[in-house]
From TrEMBL:
GO terms, biological process: intracellular signal transduction; lipid metabolic process
Lineage: Bacteria, Pseudomonadati, Pseudomonadota, Gammaproteobacteria, Lysobacterales
Record-given protein name: PI-PLC Y-box domain-containing protein
Gene Ontology MF, one: phosphatidylinositol-4,5-bisphosphate phospholipase C activity
Residue intervals of the PI-PLC Y-box domain: 61-105
Alphabetical list of InterPro entries matching this protein: DUF3301, PLipase_C_Pinositol-sp_Y
Region listing for Disordered, in residue ranges: 105-134
Length: 134
């Protein structure tokens, strides 16, 4: 019985290290996805930093899965900082929120600036018949 109590701190330490490694890998995947999405939408990912900002349980194909939300900052023209977010379930990218580009474009003519759109969420198409998460 004493041997078990001596091993308990080591097991707890191993569990913490394993969780830290898993979360670090997930963050690396989120940074890569944020970089891809910024390139796709003509934005600049600032500071190459993406931080975990939330976790929630979502139903995916009848199973409850953990969905992580990562926050980061982007720039539209190099002179601003705007928030962005992306969501991932496991290693799968599930959602994206970027600043409304039309509302932030600089006015190159004397007319009024373009009004903001009603939503800044970019919908993702379903993959090969899979159901959408949101």
């Amino acid at each position: 019985m004493d041997g078990l109590f001596e091993l308990l701190p080591l097991l707890i330490l191993l569990a913490i290290v394993g969780l830290w490694l898993k979360l670090s890998r997930a963050r690396e995947m989120a940074v890569a996805e944020a970089r891809r999405q910024c390139e796709r939408h003509g934005l600049q990912l600032l500071d190459e930093t993406v931080g975990l900002s939330g976790v929630r349980i979502r139903p995916v194909h009848g199973q409850r899965r953990l969905e992580r939300c990562y926050s980061f900052e982007v720039s539209i023209d190099g002179n601003d900082r705007e928030p962005g977010r992306l969501w991932m379930v496991g290693s799968h990218f599930t959602g994206l929120s970027l600043p409304t580009i039309e509302a932030r474009m600089r006015d190159d003519h004397d007319g009024p600036a373009t009004p903001p759109s009603t939503s800044n969420v970019i919908p993702l198409p379903p993959r090969d018949g899979q159901h959408r998460l949101h």
